[in-house]
Amino acid sequence: MAFETGVEDSGILSMVHDLFSQLSVKGDKLEHVVWVRPHGGMRPSSVQDGLPEFHAGSVLLPESLRGKFQPDDWKPLLASSIILHYRMNTRRHIKLAALAWVSLLVLIVTVPVLLNLNGMVPVLSVVALFIFSIYYGIYTIPRLQIRMRLRADLMADRLVGANRLVEILEKIRILESDDRKSNTEFYVPTIRRRLRNLR
Question: Sheet harboring 32-36: ordered strands across?
Fold first, then answer.
């Protein structure tokens, strides 16, 4: 059943504000729903890529699901994202982890220079440590984001109850199966991973 855009959007915004109140969250003043089309850039374009998202007074939702849900179907997805971004403050954790990682890289480069270390062994050790740190940071920071999303899903599932989040993610997996076969989980967990986490 398809809904008129205005009716669907206003229902989603009302649900977001109700969830803010239910979760005792002070969120942004959200006044618009923006339906995001898939594209080749880094910005999320699907629930599999991290949506729903909240940005600049708007709720970002995937265009591929527009008009395909009953109004209450959005609740478990919105609850998970609100918990992730506002209760768990994921953005702050990711920024702190990235800052710590960059600081470590700077120290690895500058300390040997300040100590005036010479010779092949110290140089190779510093290079090896630098390369390992780059790999470690690139690998672990996205894993942190994935772990937090999975935890938010579990909390949202308890909030909405009756396995509603599992039901909706299963519906999305079916709806998007043809278009999103290449989806990976470098930055966010796939739908299949989120389902396994909840079962």
Answer: 32-36, 58-62, 53-55
